[in-house]
Specification:
The structure holds 2 protein chains of 2 kinds. By secondary structure, chain A is mainly beta. Chain A has no helices and 10 strands. In chain A, a hairpin with a 5-residue loop joins strand 6 and strand 7. Chain B is mainly beta. Chain B is globular and about 45 Å long. The model of chain B has no long low-confidence stretch (mean pLDDT 92). Classes of the chains: A mainly beta, B mainly beta. Chains A and B meet through strand 4, strand 5, strand 8 and strand 9 of A and strand 5, strand 6 and strand 11 of B.
């Protein structure tokens, strides 16, 4: 079946601009995660959605970052006033929602802030 | 808190030889452990996981990993390496009891280079 999809695959933007990254999880998966992969920080958790519960935003690095998940499916990660240190690969994952369940990752969005 | 260490940035092995990629973890509760592989310009692909039961876990592409509670390790192994196994490997942990968010904590990654 279809896996996790993300768009765009690449995004180049200028410092100070806002960007939106999209994630379409596997159908039926109730949990959705955003991670960031960068050279200096490795793979780090950003935000977690589970069903209709309030999201866990504990990994967001600043208030310039926000995310929403509409209708329990598609999610959008928004970065406002982008900075050069925001340059990274943003990975989305989804799972059935239990602690034992595997998280399946999308191909990622490579963000470059000039 | 949960953490993962992958002590080797890179592992080099000749094709046909056995390979091991090391991983140690730290959790305050019981660990759920995962291995993922990342090929260039791709997302992470799931290889295998340990939840409970048999300490030896078998996964995709002939990989296996052994959970060792006393050594807090979860090393990835394969009896005979292929050139196509060359990739970046990540170990990840989730603390079963103390992690309501179920997020994964990843190690820094180990680059595996298999030479013909």
């Amino acid at each position: 079946g279809a896996g996790v999809s993300q768009s765009p695959s690449n995004k180049v933007t200028e410092k100070g601009k806002d960007v939106e990254l999209r994630c379409d999880p596997i159908s039926g998966h109730t949990a959705l995660y955003w991670y960031r992969q960068s050279l200096g920080q490795g793979l780090e958790f950003l935000i977690y959605f589970q069903g209709n519960s309030a999201p866990d935003k504990s990994g967001l690095p600043s208030d310039r970052f926000s995310a929403e998940r509409t209708g329990g499916s598609v999610s959008t990660l928004t970065i406002q006033r982008t900075q050069q240190e925001d340059s990274a690969v943003y990975l989305c994952a989804s799972s059935m929602g239990l602690a034992v369940d595997t998280q399946y990752f999308g191909p990622g969005t490579r963000l470059t802030v000039l | 808190a949960q953490s993962v260490a992958q002590p080797e940035d890179q592992v080099n092995v000749a094709e046909g030889n056995p390979l091991t990629v090391k991983c140690t973890y730290s959790v305050s509760g019981n660990p759920y452990l995962f291995w993922y592989v990342q090929y260039p310009n791709r997302g992470l692909q799931f290889l295998l996981k340990y939840i409970t039961g048999d300490n030896l876990v078998k996964g995709s592409y002939g990989f296996e990993a052994e959970f060792n509670k006393s050594q807090t390790s979860f090393h990835l192994k394969k009896p005979s390496a292929l050139v196509s196994d060359s990739a970046l490997y990540f170990c990840a942990v989730r603390d079963f009891l103390n992690n309501a968010g179920n997020m994964l904590t990843f190690g820094g990654g180990t680059r595996l280079m298999v030479k013909p």
